[in-house]
Amino acid sequence: MPEQNVPTLYEWLGGIEALDRLSTRFYERVKSDALLGPVFAHMDAGHPAHVAAFLGEVLGGPTTYSEQHGGHPHMIRQHLNRHLSQEQRRQWVNLLLDTADELKLPDDPEFRSALVGYLEWGSRLAVLNSQPGASAEENAPMPKWGWGEVKGPYQG
Ligand code: HEM
């Protein structure tokens, strides 16, 4: 497939509308989850939309999070000193993937392996950044995630 015809992961999953739906439903589930509910007890009402914008930018969409929400350093700062555990991280990833299934996000092998790859990477960084002594690098660039080793979207 010529490179210019390959959609970004952001386009493939349905753009910001799909990410907003995913994030909104995900944090509804998070709030009523025994393990994660307390971690997000004080999250502000804009949190799901901010996370949707962040994910969108990472997955190849518009640079809204960098332009309007403080970029990667701000995201890192939000995780500092939260002492997140691997158990909480795993539940976060599980619930996000359950929500992707519930909302029928694309479930082809190429897309889902790329999504899981990013969630594993990003959530492990969140845990590392939440440990004592971690700090936010002021110029931390926004991560970018693409199709990876599978070399392109599902073709049937
Ligand atoms: C790929 C993985 C992750 C991404 C992309 C992500 C993204 C974000 C972003 C963008 C924010 C800041 C939102 C804003 O600007 O208002 C944030 C805050 C936060 N994140 Fe994460 N996060 C990830 C993993 C996790 C995990 C695994 C946990 C816990 C188990 C977690 C817990 C939190 C908490 C508690 C906040 C602050 C919420 C508040 O009180 O406002 N994050 N995250």
From TrEMBL:
InterPro entries: GlbO/GLB3-like, Globin-like_sf, Globin/Proto, Hemoglobin_trunc
Identification of the protein by name: Globin
UniProt family annotation: Belongs to the truncated hemoglobin family. Group II subfamily.
UniProt key word Metal-binding: yes
Residues that bind heme: H50, H74
Gene3D superfamilies linked to this entry: Globins (1.10.490.10)
Natural source organism: Caenimonas sedimenti
Region (Disordered): 133-156
